[in-house]
Amino acid sequence: ALPQTWPLFANQWLYTLELNVRVSAILGIVGAGGIGRLLDERRAFYAYDD
């Protein structure tokens, strides 16, 4: 029974990871820090090659 649940578990884990990255990026862009702050700085200076 456990091997049958691994795809469901992996799917839920990946969805949660994607959601957390997306939310942290949005929060950073609006000023709460995190990965969004780094993305905003790169976008502001057009420094995509770093």
Rg, rounded, reads 16 Å
Tell me the major beta sheet: none
Secondary-structure class: mainly alpha
Number of H/I helices: 2
Instruction: Determine the N-to-C terminus distance.
Output: 46 Å
Q: What shape does the CA trace take?
A: elongated
Question: What's the SSE pattern?
Answer: HH
Low-confidence stretches: none
Helix content: over 70%
> Using DSSP, what is the number of strands?
0
Number of domains: 1
Query: How much is the average pLDDT?
Result: 80
Estimate what percentage of residues fall within beta strands: under 5%
Question: Which descriptors would you attach to this protein?
Answer:
single chain; 50 residues; mainly alpha; 2 helices; 78% helix; 0% strand
Describe how the helices and strands are arranged.
Elements: H1 2-29, H2 35-45
Task: Describe what is shown at a glance.
This protein is mainly alpha-helical. Helices cover 78% and strands 0% of the residues. The protein is built from two helices and no strands.
Q: Could you characterize what this model shows?
A:
- The chain has 50 residues and is an all-alpha fold.
- The chain has one domain.
- Helix content is 78%, strand content 0%.
- It contains 2 helices and no strands.
- Helix 1 crosses helix 2.
- 2% of the residues are buried.
